[in-house]
Amino acid sequence: MTETADSAESASVPAEAPNMGYILAIAIVATIGGFLFGYDSGVINGTVDGLQTAFNSEAIGTGWNVASMLLGCAVGALIAGRAADIFGRRTLLVVAAVFFIISAFGSGIAGGSTEFVVYRLLGGLAVGAASVMAPAYIAEIAPASIRGRLATIQQIAIIAGLFFSFLSNYLLAQTAGGSTVEFWLGFETWRWMFWMELVPAIIFLIALFSIPESPRFLVFKKKTERATSVLSKLFGPVTAKRKVGEIQASLVDDHQPSLRDLISPITKKIRPIVWVGIGLASFQQLVGINIIFYYGAVLWQAAGFTESDALLTNVLSGALSIGSVIVALLVIDKLGRKPMLVIGSIGMAITLGLCAFAFSTGELIDGSLSLSDNMALLALVAANIYVMFFNFSWGPVMWVMLGEMFPNQIRGSGLAVAGLFQWGTNFLISITFLSLLGTIGLAGAYGIYTVFAVLSIWFVIKMVRETRGKELEDMEG
To answer: Which of 150, 295, 310, 335 is the most buried (most CB within 10 A)?
Structure first.
């Protein structure tokens, strides 16, 4: 058949509608990994006092107990990107689910700091793998027209995980009378905070066996029939045949995807798109968002709030975060990724600056920062508006862009490197917070985060390219 005849035949076939119910169901299963990512990241927030008491640790030791997971996240993200190119996207999510289960149980049963850190590192491996694989998997099964919205569900899941970890921590502490008090079966409350994660982790593991492998991975592995079958269920048989051809055309013929693809064959240097991915991943953490997520209770107690009020404030922040991400979901495929990042950076720079100002007016009394009623209110309102700006922009958009911005040939490797920097920067910010709190105070720490928020405005305007509406096979690197 000639090319003209092929074109005529293609034109005569009515356009196939994607199987949106099936696609949405797959995306929801994948984003349970995001829920666990958020839960595992946020649950530590309410356990800091319990860890200090149980393991008799000082600020540096507690900082290590809290931040140790992040090293596992960095390693997990780096390994997952490459391993997913070898074993498959879904397979890596299954492994992550198993690690979530082991980590949740072990963190609660740990009898010492070293044992606790080992289990948190395992949880970090799971979080790191889920953080890069879930958005990549969703991007690879979603139609371009709604890819941003589907991938944003991942951020809703992350924030929902954070919210429910904060809510669970608060309710457990309120019921028991504190995080360090003995609760059910004679175990301290903070241990039950970790064990609550077992329920969604087990659900995630079971649900993963109901979804298919990524069709783009199947094409990478030359399993064309399976890829066509999956794509047919997603988009219809005619579209499936065309997409398989497009995916094959986007790959390098002489080898499977590998880390060496990150180096341009023309310039012999790291591809510019890789540096953009590293910048997006790093700036998302350098603005200090996870200080509120990991150390929210410590932060607000340092500003004069009681433990109960601090935990309740975390619940408020989580609820506002979910609302902000829902707004992002509604507009990301209309407004675009780049404008949302710029809006978020400007909003974060202003609100972080207001927090730093409010904290700078306080005075230390018996080791705690005392603020006037007006300045405490300003800090609380500015911090929560900052969380809203982040979760409207950098929270979801960074993950959406990392999942879609890399060409097919380097998606796994690009995600691996970007994920390594994202979690490495997260670790740096988290491990230094308690030390900064004791040296330059909340005002100084928030001043640093404000500077990075300002720099992120320049980075987005200068370096980031819009990806809205582009097919994955059309991404340039």
So the answer is: 150
Q: Where are the alpha helices (DSSP H) in 336-440?
A: 337-360, 373-392, 394-404, 411-439
Of 346, 454, 458, 450, the C-alpha closest to 393 is 346
Angstrom CA distances, 142 to 20, 157, 235, stand at 9, 17, 9
Could you tell me how far CA 354 lies from the centroid of its own chain?
Answer: 26
Contact 183, 169 (CB under 8 A): no
Round to whole Å and give the CA distance between 428 and 278.
15
Name the more confident of 246 and 355: 355
Cα 474 from Cα 466, distance rounded (Å): 12
Expressed as residue numbers, the domain containing 298 is: 17-474
Which helix H or strand E contains 370, and what residues bound it?
strand 368-370
CATH number of the domain encompassing residue 197: 1.20.1250.20
Q: Is 9 part of any domain?
A: no
In tens, the pLDDT along 238-263 reads: 888 888 888 888 776 545 666 677 88
Angle at 139 between CA 135 and CA 141, to 5 degrees: 120
Quick count: other Cβ atoms within 10 Å of Cβ 8?
A: 11
Residue 2 covered by a domain: no
Q: How far apart are CA 60 and CA 72, in angstroms?
A: 18
Provide the 8-state DSSP code for 465.
-
Scan for tokens 């829920």, then name that residue. 35
Compute φ and ψ for 209, nearest 5 degrees: -75, 0
Is 43 a domain residue? Answer: yes
Listed in sequence order, the DSSP H helices in 43-88 are 48-55, 59-87
**Sequence letter at residue 305:** F
Residue 365: its H or E element: strand 363-365
Calpha distance 39→200 (Å, rounded):
9
Could you tell me which residues are beta bridge partners of residue 137?
A: none
Q: What is the CA 243 to chain-centroid distance, rounded?
A: 29
**168 three-class SS:** helix
What per-residue confidence (pLDDT) applies to 228? 92
Is this structure's pTM higher than 0.90? no
Q: DSSP characters for 227-261?
A: HHHHHHHHH-HHHHHHHHHHHHHTS-TTS---GGG
> How many separate domains does the chain show?
1
Total number of residues shown for the chain = 477
Q: Report whether 283 contacts 55 (CB < 8 A).
A: no
Gap between the Cα atoms of 471 and 477, Å rounded: 14
User: Alpha helix (H) ranges present in 110-249?
Assistant: 113-141, 147-176, 189-195, 198-208, 215-220, 224-235, 237-249
